[in-house]
User: What shape does this take?
Amino acid sequence: MTDTQGEFELIDWIQQRTPAHAQVPIGIGDDAALLKFNRNGESLVTVDMLLEGVHFTLDTATPFQIGWKSLGVNLSDIAAMGGRAVAAVVSIALPRGRAWELAQGIQEGIDALARQFDVCIAGGDTNTWNGPLVISITALGEPLGNGPIRRGGAQPGDWILVTGNLGGSIAGKHLNFIPRLEEARLLQEHVALHAMIDISDGLAADLHHILDESHVGARIFAAQVPISSAAQAATDGRSPLAHALGDGEDFELLMTLSPADAQSLLANPIFSTHLAHIGEIVAGKTAELIEADGCSTPLLATGWRHSF
Amino acid sequence: MTDTQGEFELIDWIQQRTPAHAQVPIGIGDDAALLKFNRNGESLVTVDMLLEGVHFTLDTATPFQIGWKSLGVNLSDIAAMGGRAVAAVVSIALPRGRAWELAQGIQEGIDALARQFDVCIAGGDTNTWNGPLVISITALGEPLGNGPIRRGGAQPGDWILVTGNLGGSIAGKHLNFIPRLEEARLLQEHVALHAMIDISDGLAADLHHILDESHVGARIFAAQVPISSAAQAATDGRSPLAHALGDGEDFELLMTLSPADAQSLLANPIFSTHLAHIGEIVAGKTAELIEADGCSTPLLATGWRHSF
Assistant: This one.
């Protein structure tokens, strides 16, 4: 709020670039935005804040990528609930001196992803300061199909499926991933998901979130975990499997559902994104990794750490 | 995301302190929150980001006050739309070393205000970093009565009313104001508001927002502008009236409505908060300040600047 003229210009510029949206009769330009929701007035809402030096650096990510990622992480959360994204609001602190250049690139990145999924940027708060770049996005969505899919619905006997290939996201995918909204929509249409989460902390850590909330255990078959080419190419001494289990920011969907529904999806794919059967939910509270030789080891909730 | 253990503890702590809310079947603890809205599924949403060194300093504001203010500015925006606040989500970047102490105080400040207006803190994203304190809140609400009150509805002949007393907020009010949600609710019940805004940039600047959006002009009667005791006590050489017109962060409601509705409110108060008739909307595009001697001068949209 210290560079008022510049901020108003920025907001005007953003407003001009924001297309009209039938579900947002009042968007940028008033005290608050008005959202109309289609289905019984239920709204999903999620927020993520990205910090320069923590979640990205300006040396290794373009402003466009930062904008894309900052919306993408939120859309991934809406997808993880089995929802459809409707709108988002953006607050941002721009480093003085580079504010205009950064804001333009970030807006373009946000806009590109928003258009892809028909998401309305319904409002924002733009600031300049002497600190690092900060961007916080709140996304709003609405539930689809069977309603929101929570972490706590996994049942013993469920199969565990995951989209995409895992690990090594830091090599690039974390800046240009496609949130799995379309896959979530199709899954909601075709099967009864029991539990779902997006992989942000890493497969092992996020699986543990499901297990903890559902009060169940799991067996993961090491040979069936889909490993990304980035994880296979890693040269840091950790195995590709360790990357696939432990790396964060894959932004893939990890879900549990009945064996019958899972087999149906695997036999008759409903989308082109790779879908892998990586394990099963069991009674109890332990998570095991079953290796190719049949040996089992505890699967710990090893998280991930970015290191720039 | 670099201090994972501490963040999970913080989130748990916040979750434990967050009461259940009938309109939020899914709150903190899943990928996204689910909000149920009562009235035709319409949701108001607004976001504001507060930055250390820009909107507050840790020398002059307590963490409790920062938390209170960060929610308050958003609730003031919901009030300005004539809405009821339902929920909010909070993203925060905490300076490493003071993270826990700051987070506790901020949560307490947010919680105190949220409880006062039955607002559910429905989610959040907590981070620690080596930068200054950043807090961004998105508030969600629902329209009341006649639906959302916008900036663009002022009509020539309308009376201009304002709640409270204006100016000198920097002396303290900007950290402990009560957002005018209750007044907004009662106004929506009793009269047909034409336009409304909350005073964040200053009476003159925010009046100009209404005039610009409504394509009208205004006459403001200097002698009728309610001046706060803080503005009267200011010793910086600017007059109390200049403070009342130009200072920001009053977080009062500035509204226009028919003379009949305005007279009814003034004759039969519907709340104890002071309500003043400060001017009228006119055709044209000019804003004039009518001084006590009858002379008129242009009323410029002089904004405000915090200077710590």
In short: Chain A has two domains: 4-143, 151-298. The first strand of chain A starts at residue 33 and ends at 36. The mean pLDDT of chain A is 87.
